[in-house]
């Protein structure tokens, strides 16, 4: 940007000064009804938003690039810019042009940045997904101790946990924050540490992470003398939390959101799931992108936005606390057993708005009347929910929440009296305060809307008072409102005692005009009624907002309780309609699934109208302290990968506190869930498909403990046959002997099935198939035993490979199998004997002319729609007779 010159206009000088303080953001400079951008900001914004780039004046002899967007549509443009990696500094007018002119005719309206819009600081519904959190996270290291803190300012949720650097990537994968704050003095290579982290990384000064300043910042925010009331926090945790609060003060310009007291999480409190496993299992996002075809899409039957966000949190962080899991399962079982109560609750929950986000906007002074009605309606429904549960025996989880739904009568009554049923979006539009709440407002509205009627009423009063029926009250631009009568009646108007009430204004040829103090005051009120009414409504809005904010902690707890009940009843609804069963979860090492199903695949089959999902059993319970591993063989397309994934998902679903898609399930707590399924590369970092596979496998073998559940699919397939077999063999032995994990290991290396005789905790299983007339039929049934072949040639035929290729593949396969089984020679020797390159390709099949059979000729003549049942039966006899001849 060019340096400022002496001939710069005052307005442009103001822009350049403000821009110098926000160099890393696009400056949205308010000018009336538009936000305008200049110089490089205009060029970048015009390209990103696909809007016209114009010019406005000159600077240093060059045209100044300019573009602009309407203020009323700014949120949509914010969303586009944030999605494309920009930050926005919103610069507002702090006074009106009239106020600026009081300082001088050429004075520039005062402006300043009132907010920085960044990915982690969004609060508007139009910029957020209702059923997803929008986390702002911060990572801090103090004296070789690490901590991660995160907040969703749209709901107020604030969390922190100790987190060594090696655990950062898995935790970020769990939280999926949109923005990560780090110390600008950190030596960590964040791009390398969090490769799967799709969010912006924001460096903040080291002073923001100073633990002493951070502690003071937190104490001031929560108005406490010590943080010990919340938990015992380490220095790194205090540093991370303090950095978040400092960043919020910077971006919100002192208007801090309603952040709840911090909740400290234990790093061992949730099932550990790394980024690769989350991606492979498609927990919250499908591999194809988006939410559809993911686990959460198959399970989400919540009716509230807060309930949807809670479901995502539970699926992302399955618990390892057996007692807590049982509490949640008891609540779901209650909702399943009391179906009528559950359905009544769900009818009430349908009407519950998003109180959490409305509260946050009220705290940041970005709310509108509809946020107040959301609080009113939400608390009213909370009262209905508590009434529905108060007269019956309810589980412990519901008991913990029922009291939080009560005690809001005063707030409900205040908002009910003050607000109309359907208010406008913005407070500046007015019309949201109910009639009868404010006498002054009602008077102003009457004057504004019924001014003529009020004047007519006053005219009648004066006519009766003077006895002059021809008296009129009129209006013009010079005198305003005035009383007019004929010259013949003028003396009567000025006679005692009326002469003290009526004041002479003007005499014309035939009329005399008067006024009164009452009429002058009324005129002023009518003239100012509209503006005054709006001022009164804005004042009432502020009063109501403050009244709500004083109850914010209690309202937030009510919203949290409603979300819990919503999630519980939605899981019960899912269990009832999808035939899911309550799992038995304990602290042992059992893993026995009977009739297990993959919820996403089952849902997809139903939508497609295909055959029902084939349920399968899986028993990894060995009754000892050693490993329990199934070595799964069988053809491609038979369902091995589905079987692996469904058992991992069943464990995850059980530990989040839900019924599971199975006939029965006995699951000992799974501490870690690891998945190495599918093929992918990372070319940006120079990693081939095989390298990615090995990196993910190494992570599993280096971390998995004896409580882990591991699913591995086709380890070693990305390299030469013997290399791959060796790696797969050694991996399985390590899982068995060192990790001692529960595992499902799918492979096409049939040689590995011999390991079941060597390893005590290993067992063979296969996916059964049948062959028919050279084709393979998949039964999708997992049974004990081992496969003797992979049916790859048959699958290739199903995929549509040319028949020449399929036939040639069969010849080569038979030669290889025969060579190894009969002569015990190596595959290389067999291949050397095959005339792979010298053989003449088989000729293309020639078309043979065949005459249609008599039966086919007869069938071609038939028109089924024209046949009666008797004719059809007779025809069937004729066709059978023809076929026999």
Automatic annotation (TrEMBL):
It comes from the Bacteria. The keyword Nucleotide-binding applies. Residues 708-724 form the DNA mismatch repair proteins mutS family domain. Keywords: ATP-binding, DNA damage, DNA repair, DNA-binding, Nucleotide-binding. ATP binds at residues 634-641. GO terms for molecular function: ATP binding; ATP-dependent DNA damage sensor activity; damaged DNA binding; mismatched DNA binding. The keyword ATP-binding applies. Pfam families: MutS_I, MutS_II, MutS_III, MutS_IV, MutS_V. SMART domains: MUTSac (SM00534), MUTSd (SM00533). This protein is involved in the repair of mismatches in DNA. It is possible that it carries out the mismatch recognition step. This protein has a weak ATPase activity. PANTHER family: DNA MISMATCH REPAIR PROTEIN MSH1, MITOCHONDRIAL, DNA MISMATCH REPAIR PROTEIN MUTS FAMILY MEMBER. This is DNA mismatch repair protein MutS. It comes from Pacificibacter maritimus.
């Amino acid at each position: 940007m060019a340096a400022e010159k002496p001939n710069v206009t005052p307005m442009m000088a103001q822009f350049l000064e403000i821009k110098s303080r926000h160099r890393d953001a696009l400056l949205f400079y308010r000018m009336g009804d538009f936000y305008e951008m200049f110089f490089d900001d205009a060029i970048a914004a015009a390209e990103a938003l696909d809007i016209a780039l114009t010019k406005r004046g000159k600077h240093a002899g060059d045209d100044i690039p300019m573009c602009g967007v309407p203020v009323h549509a700014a949120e949509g443009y914010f969303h586009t810019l944030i999605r494309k990696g920009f930050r926005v500094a919103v610069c507002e007018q702090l006074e009106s042009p009239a106020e600026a002119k009081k300082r001088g005719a050429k004075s520039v309206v005062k402006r300043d940045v009132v907010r920085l819009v960044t990915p982690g600081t969004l609060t508007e519904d139009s910029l957020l997904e209702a059923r997803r959190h929008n986390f702002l996270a911060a990572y801090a290291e103090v004296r070789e101790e690490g901590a991660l803190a995160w907040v969703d300012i749209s709901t107020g949720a604030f969390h922190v946990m100790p987190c060594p650097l090696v655990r950062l990537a898995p935790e970020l994968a769990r939280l999926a924050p949109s923005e990560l704050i780090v110390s600008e003095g950190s030596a960590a290579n964040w791009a390398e540490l969090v490769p799967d982290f799709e969010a912006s990384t924001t460096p903040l000064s080291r002073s923001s992470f100073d633990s002493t300043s951070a502690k003071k910042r937190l104490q001031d925010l929560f108005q406490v003398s010590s943080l010990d009331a919340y938990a015992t926090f380490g220095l790194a945790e205090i540093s991370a939390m303090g950095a978040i609060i400092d960043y919020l003060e910077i971006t919100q310009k002192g208007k801090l959101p309603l952040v709840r007291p911090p909740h400290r999480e234990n790093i061992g409190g949730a099932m550990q799931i790394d980024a690769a496993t989350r991606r492979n299992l498609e927990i919250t996002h499908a591999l194809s992108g988006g939410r559809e075809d993911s686990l959460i899409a198959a399970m989400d039957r919540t009716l509230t936005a807060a309930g949807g966000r809670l479901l995502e949190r539970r699926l992302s962080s399955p618990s390892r606390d057996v007692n807590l899991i049982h509490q949640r399962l008891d609540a779901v079982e209650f909702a399943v057993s009391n179906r009528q109560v559950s359905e009544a609750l769900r009818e009430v929950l349908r009407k519950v708005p998003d109180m959490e986000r409305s509260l946050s906007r009220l705290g940041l002074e970005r709310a509108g009347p509809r946020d107040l009605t959301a609080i009113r309606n939400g608390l009213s429904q909370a009262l209905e929910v508590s009434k529905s549960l108060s007269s019956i025996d309810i589980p412990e989880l519901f008991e913990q929440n029922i009291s939080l739904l009560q005690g809001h009568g005063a707030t409900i009554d205040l908002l009910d009296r003050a607000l109309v049923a359907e208010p406008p979006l913005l407070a500046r539009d007015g019309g949201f305060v109910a009639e009868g709440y404010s006498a002054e407002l009602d008077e102003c509205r009457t004057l504004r809307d019924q001014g003529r009627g009020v004047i007519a009423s006053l005219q009648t009063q004066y006519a009766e008072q003077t006895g002059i029926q021809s008296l009129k009250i009129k209006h013009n631009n010079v005198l305003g409102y005035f009383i007019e009568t004929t010259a013949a009646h003028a003396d009567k108007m000025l006679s005692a005692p009326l002469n003290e009430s009526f004041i002479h204004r003007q005499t014309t040829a035939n009329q005399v005009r008067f006024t009164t103090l009452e009429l002058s005051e009324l005129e002023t009120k009518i003239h100012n009624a509209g503006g005054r009414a709006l001022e009164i409504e804005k004042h009432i809005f502020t009063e109501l907002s403050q009244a709500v904010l004083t109850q914010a902690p209690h309202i937030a707890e009510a919203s949290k309780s409603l979300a819990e009940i919503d999630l519980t009843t939605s899981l019960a609804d899912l269990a009832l309609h999808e035939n899911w069963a309550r799992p038995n979860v304990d602290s042992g090492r059992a893993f026995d699934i009977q009739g297990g199903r993959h919820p996403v695949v089952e849902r997809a089959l139903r939508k497609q109208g295909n055959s029902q999902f084939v349920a399968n059993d899986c028993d990894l319970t060995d009754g000892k302290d050693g490993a329990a591993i199934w070595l799964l063989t069988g053809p491609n397309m038979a369902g091995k990968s589905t079987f692996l994934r469904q058992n991992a998902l069943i464990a995850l679903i059980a530990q989040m506190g839900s019924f599971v898609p199975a006939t029965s399930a006995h699951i000992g707590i799974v501490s870690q869930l690891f998945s190495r399924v599918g093929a992918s590369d990372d070319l940006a970092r120079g990693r081939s498909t095989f390298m990615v596979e090995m990196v993910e496998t190494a992570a599993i073998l280096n971390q998995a403990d004896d409580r882990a559940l591991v699913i591995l699919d086709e380890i070693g397939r990305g390299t030469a046959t013997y290399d791959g077999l060796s790696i797969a063999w050694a991996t399985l032995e390590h899982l068995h002997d060192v990790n001692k994990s529960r595992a499902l290991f799918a492979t096409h290396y049939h040689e590995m099935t011999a390991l079941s005789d060597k390893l005590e905790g290993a067992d063979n299983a296969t996916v059964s198939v049948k062959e028919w007339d050279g084709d393979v039929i998949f039964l999708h049934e997992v049974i004990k035993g081992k496969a003797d072949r992979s049916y790859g040639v048959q699958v290739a035929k199903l995929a549509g490979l040319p028949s020449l290729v399929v036939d040639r593949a069969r010849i080569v396969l038979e030669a290889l199998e025969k060579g190894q089984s009969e002569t015990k020679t190596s595959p290389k020797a067999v291949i050397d004997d095959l005339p792979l390159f010298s053989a003449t390709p088989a000729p293309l099949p020639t078309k043979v002319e065949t005459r249609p059979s008599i039966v086919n000729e007869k069938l071609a003549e038939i028109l089924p729609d024209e046949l009666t049942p008797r004719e059809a039966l007779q025809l069937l006899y004729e066709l059978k007779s023809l076929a026999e001849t």
